[in-house]
Amino acid sequence: MVTTSPAAPLVLPFVGRTRETAELRRLHALQQHALILGPAGVGKTALVAHLQPQLRFLQCPHSEHLGEICASLERELGLTTEGLRLVERKPRLRQALAQAGRTVVLDGVGWTTPKLCSWLETVMARTPVWLCTRSAHPWDIGHAWRLLVRFQRVELQALRAAETQALVEAVVQGGLVPPQTRSLAAWLQRRSGGNPRKLYQFLAELNSGHYDLDNPLALRRLEMDRRIHEAFPPPPPA
To answer: Which residues, including other chains, have CB under 8 Å from residue 63's CB and lie 6 or more apart?
Structure first.
């Protein structure tokens, strides 16, 4: 039985995505703009986090509003904002980004306003930019749609069965879930559809140690608990 405290978040190893990581490393070396595309939970944020220690780009984890983007990047660059209005901060930040010479990654990009699109275009003139978003359709991404022709697309698909099997093997070897979980790899692939977020939810439930996998009803309870916790996430640890 796994005895890890349920209050401790489960940290999964990074597996697969060989083609995508190689392509992003190539684009980074060429200082090109990249559009990282994929549905919710497919692993865009995990892919960026995997590459961060190697590529050391500047990252904004929440990119829905220009103000929060500026504040996040200013913190990373060590820029103070006291007494400055946003209209004064924007040109200063553009200059600092260009001088830093590092790729800027905007995660969680959704609908972009004309103001955000205009700022983004000026940054792109001197700084490589990566956008992580669920959709490249103009009705989803907003005004930045007209800029997308300048981006190289990297699309993330659901994990294949072999990748799910490799993930299960890694978490078993790491002692995060019971050894019997190996026999559930095909079931987990079917139930999750290869979606990494759903796989994480299943494995987090198994990490709690609350399931007797020798009981034929365990999988039904596992599925039910995952759906309950997806709809009503437990509060974060104090």
So the answer is: 69, 106, 107, 108, 109, 110, 131, 132
- Helix H or strand E encompassing 132: strand 129-133
Domain count, the chain: 2
Kindly give the interhelix angle for 114-124 and 66-77, rounded to the nearest 10 degrees. Answer: 30
Long-range Cβ contact pairs of 68-76 (< 8 A, separation 24 or more): 69/106, 69/116, 73/97, 73/104
Is residue 170 in a domain? yes
Structure tokens at 25: 């490393």
Instruction: Examine the domain organization and report whether 117 and 136 are in the same domain.
Output: yes
- Judgement on whether residues 57 and 89 belong to the same structural domain of the protein: yes
Quote the CA–CA distance of 201 and 223 in Å, as a whole number.
10
Q: pLDDT digit string (tens) for 9-39? A: 788 889 889 999 999 999 999 999 999 999 9
Supply the pLDDT for residue 8: 61
**How are beta strands 152-155 and 129-133 bridged, if at all?**
unpaired
Q: Where are the beta strands (DSSP E) in the chain?
A: 34-37, 58-60, 104-109, 129-133, 152-155
> Which tokens sit at 90?
């924007």
Residue 7 has pLDDT above 50, yes or no: no
Q: Please state the pTM of the whole predicted model.
A: 0.88
Domain that holds residue 147: 18-155
Asked if residues 76 and 56 have their Cβ atoms less than 8 Å apart, the reply is no
Q: Is 3 domain-assigned? A: no
- Say which CATH number the domain at 119 has: 3.40.50.300
